[in-house]
Structures are given as structure tokens and as C-alpha cells.
């Protein structure tokens, strides 16, 4: 029996998440795993019994950012020696024992494929450094999805990982080395997790994977592609919205394009990275698609779903890029017309094929990036202004700062601010857009 006069002390977990949506999902799953072991989340790092830094290796200087954050934790560790400090994610996978060597204050290091063993590591029942690729599926060992705040239901939007790893081996990318080969989760487990999320109040699910539209798996009637999975998810009562990211042009199969036409829950929004508009640079990147092929694909997608908004990723200044290559990218962007896009100056990643290639002069790359971002910003502004006057679905996710204001996401993933005093988090309503701001929209409840 529990001693009612002396209940066990609550253990508090602070998680800092770096980078991508996949890491947000992983942080949630790690929090759930630790929650099953008696931990609750805290937003106060100084009050935590454990600090976990969930890292991402996609962005520039990822390792340096980690070591800088660990340096800031030194005074807290010195003041509280019992504080546990862990490093998770892709930098943990890449750096391994080097993290502990450079920062002895770190108690454990866990890679993306082994974080299901995090509670055992904290208890001292597993090695303090786990960065292997285990044969077992980590999802088999994670607890059922729960609310991160035990007093409330889940937020109305949630992530669900369906695929991990990548076999594309783009010359600039570390994912195949930190996340491993492509692995697709089984159909039944995905559908079970989705139904569980809906039962807990989720109305929108974003399917995640490093190469999410490459998902495939055995289901009723034989092998399923990603489009069939989306159709099955669309049949779950109460699941009002479906999104997915990140996809590869070479895996936009016919059934997936048709799903954009046929499944009303699949939002009219597609993030489809192209990286460059130059075929020469695309070959150097090992992308295995051409600019013309990408444009033909966009035409097919828009034929299936004319109101779709497209977003993308671009790398500027990739080794060997010329002014002509850059202008090819500018022409592709002008022809497609993106709703928004992420664009970055190339930075080498250790262990990737492009790491030791001669780099483009930094000042030239900066100038090209400014030119590209200028065009993308104009396109984003035009896309947002095109929403003004339209009635869109908006899923309210949180209250705004002003009394009676709610903030939600539109069908096109724009943040929308609405005066709605009677509304609650989780309401999905029609909103007429009345104003476009720099990175958001303002709307009024539609009659």
C-alpha cells in the first residue's frame, strides 16, 4: 500500500526540442515513455529532475548549438549533482561517446531508434550510451499515447510517425546515417494509434516520415501504398484533417495524387522539396529527378486538386553551383508559384558525400539566397492576400493574447487569429479571412 502521509515525490522532466516535426513527435513519445515511469513535464528547466535535449542534425552548426546549451547547464548541474542530463536525437546518434567525452556532465546519450529504452537508461538498467540500430521496433515497446498534461485531453492536432529513415542518400543529407534505412510501420499499428489519438480529442493528424510518401506496408488485400493508407485514415470517424510531411518527388505515386482529389480530409497543402531548379545540381545532389519532371508532377497534382497550396525546400550555393544554375532555380520558382518555402545556404555535413567538395564563395551564396528569398517572400505574400475574402476551415488550437481571441490553423496551415469569445480549443469552424499580416491571417466567424 502507498503511504498516504508520504506520497512519492513527483519527478519532473524538461525537454528541449531542436529542429524538425519528427523531433517534436519523438519528444512527445519520450515524454510518454518517461511518464509511464513516473515523470511529468515541466516548463521550468531549473526545477527539473531531468533535462533532455532532443537534437536535430539537419540545420547548420547543430553540434555547436548542443555544446553551447550543455555549457549553460554546467552551473545547474554543479548546484544539483543529482540532476540527470540526457542528449537524444540525430546529433546524439552522430556524436555518440564524443558528447560525454567533451561534456562529462551528460549522464546518457540515446539515438532516434533506441529512445524506447530511455526509462531503463535512467534507472541504470541499460547502457548510458545507446546509438545502435536495434532489431526490434521501438514502437512495439513505447507506451500507449497519452496526454502530456494528465489533467487535460490531448491538443486537437497531433503528429503520427508512419515511416523512418531514408534510402535516397542525397549528397548533402545526414538522415540515412543518423536515422538509418527506410522502415515503414505496419498498417494496423498506424490505424490503431490514429484511432487512439482521435478518442483522446485529436481532430487533425500530420503523418511524419523522413520520406513519408515512400511508406508501404502489407494490409487487407495485399501491399498498400501511401495513398491507400490515407484513404483508410479518412474512414476514421472524428478525424477531420490529414496532412503529411516530408515527401520526395519520386514517391508521388498515382494513388497518392488521386487521394488528394478523393479524400476530403486530406488538406489542400503539400510540402514537396525540390532543392534546386538546375538539372546539373540535382544530379550532383543525387536527387534522381529533373526540374522538368518536377514541373510535370506539379501539373498532375494541380489537375487532381486545383486549390492545393505548394511549399518546398531549396539549398542555395551547393558545391559547383553557377549563376546559370541559380537562374534555373529562380525560373522554376517563378513557374510554380509557392505558397511558402524554406531556403538555406548550403552548409557541409560531416560524413556526407558533398562534405569535402569545394564550396561556393560565401558572399556569392548569400547574394543568391537573398534573391531567392525575395521572390519566395513575394509569392508567400500573394498567396496570403489571395485568402482574403475566402471562407476557410480553421481548427482552434489555443487562446490568443487578447480576451476572447482564438488562434488556429487554416486548411492551408496558415495561423489565423479570430475574435471568438464562445469558442473552445478543438473547435473546427468556418472563418472568413479579412486581413493578411506578415506570417498570419485575421478572420471573422463566418455566418
CATH class of the largest domain: Alpha Beta
What name goes with the CATH superfamily of the largest domain?
tm_1862 like domain
Q: Roughly what fraction of the amino acids lie in strands?
A: 15-25%
Q: How many E-type strands? A: 21
| Global geometry | globular
Ends: how far apart?
Answer: 57 Å
Tally of individual helices: 13
Structural class from helices and strands?
Answer: alpha/beta
CATH architecture annotation name of the largest domain: Alpha-Beta Horseshoe
Radius of gyration based on Cα positions: 23 Å
Low-confidence stretches: 148-152
Mean pLDDT: 92
What is the percent of helical residues?
Answer: 25-40%
The side-by-side strand order for the widest beta sheet comes to: 2-1-3-4-5-6
Which fold name is given in CATH as the topology of the largest domain? pyruvate-formate lyase- activating enzyme
Main sheet? 6 strands, parallel
Number of structurally distinct domains? 3
Cofactor: [4Fe-4S] cluster
Family: Belongs to the methylthiotransferase family. MiaB subfamily.
GO molecular function: 4 iron, 4 sulfur cluster binding; metal ion binding; tRNA-2-methylthio-N(6)-dimethylallyladenosine(37) synthase activity
Enzyme class: transferase
Amino acid at each position: 500500500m502507498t503511504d498516504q502521509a508520504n506520497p512519492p515525490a513527483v519527478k519532473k522532466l524538461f525537454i528541449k526540442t531542436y529542429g524538425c516535426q519528427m523531433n517534436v513527435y519523438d519528444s512527445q513519445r519520450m515524454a510518454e515513455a518517461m511518464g509511464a515511469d513516473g515523470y511529468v513535464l515541466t516548463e521550468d528547466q531549473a526545477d527539473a529532475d531531468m533535462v533532455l535535449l532532443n537534437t536535430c542534425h539537419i540545420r547548420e552548426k547543430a553540434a555547436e548549438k548542443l555544446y553551447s546549451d550543455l555549457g549553460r547547464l554546467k552551473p545547474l548541474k554543479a548546484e544539483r549533482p543529482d540532476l540527470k542530463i540526457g542528449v537524444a536525437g540525430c546529433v546524439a546518434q552522430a556524436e555518440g561517446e564524443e558528447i560525454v567525452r567533451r561534456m562529462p556532465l551528460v549522464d546518457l546519450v540515446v539515438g532516434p531508434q533506441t529512445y524506447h529504452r530511455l526509462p531503463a537508461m535512467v534507472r541504470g538498467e541499460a547502457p548510458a550510451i545507446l546509438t545502435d540500430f536495434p532489431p526490434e521496433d521501438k514502437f512495439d515497446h513505447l507506451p500507449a499515447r497519452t496526454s502530456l498534461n494528465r489533467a487535460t485531453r490531448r491538443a486537437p492536432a497531433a503528429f503520427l510517425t508512419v515511416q523512418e529513415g531514408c534510402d535516397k542518400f542525397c549528397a548533402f543529407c545526414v538522415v540515412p546515417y543518423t536515422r538509418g534505412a527506410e522502415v515503414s510501420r505496419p498498417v494496423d499499428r498506424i490505424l490503431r494509434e490514429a484511432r487512439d489519438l482521435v478518442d483522446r480529442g485529436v481532430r487533425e493528424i500530420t503523418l511524419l516520415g523522413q520520406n513519408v510518401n515512400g511508406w508501404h506496408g502489407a494490409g487487407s488485400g495485399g501491399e498498400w501504398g501511401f495513398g491507400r493508407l490515407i484513404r483508410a485514415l479518412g474512414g476514421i470517424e472524428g478525424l477531420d484533417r490529414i496532412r503529411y510531411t516530408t515527401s520526395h518527388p519520386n514517391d508521388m505515386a498515382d494513388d497518392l495524387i488521386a487521394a488528394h482529389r478523393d479524400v476530403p480530409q486530406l488538406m489542400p497543402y503539400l510540402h514537396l522539396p525540390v532543392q534546386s531548379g538546375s538539372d546539373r545540381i540535382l544530379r550532383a545532389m543525387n536527387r534522381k529527378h529533373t526540374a522538368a519532371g518536377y514541373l510535370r508532377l506539379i501539373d498532375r497534382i494541380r489537375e487532381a486538386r486545383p486549390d492545393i497550396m505548394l511549399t518546398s525546400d531549396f539549398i542555395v550555393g551547393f558545391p559547383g553551383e553557377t549563376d546559370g544554375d541559380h537562374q534555373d532555380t529562380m525560373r522554376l520558382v517563378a513557374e510554380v508559384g509557392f505558397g511558402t518555402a524554406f531556403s538555406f545556404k548550403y552548409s557541409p555535413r560531416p560524413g556526407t558525400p558533398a562534405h569535402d567538395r569545394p564550396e561556393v564563395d560565401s558572399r556569392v551564396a548569400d547574394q543568391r539566397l537573398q534573391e531567392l528569398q525575395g521572390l519566395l517572400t513575394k509569392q508567400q505574400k500573394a498567396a496570403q492576400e489571395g485568402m482574403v475574402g475566402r471562407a476557410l476551415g480553421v481548427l482552434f488550437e489555443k487562446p490568443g493574447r487578447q480576451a476572447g481571441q482564438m488562434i488556429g490553423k487554416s486548411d492551408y496551415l496558415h495561423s489565423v487569429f479570430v475574435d471568438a469569445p464562445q469558442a473552445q480549443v478543438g473547435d473546427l469552424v468556418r472563418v472568413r479571412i479579412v486581413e493578411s499580416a506578415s506570417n498570419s491571417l485575421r478572420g471573422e466567424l463566418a455566418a
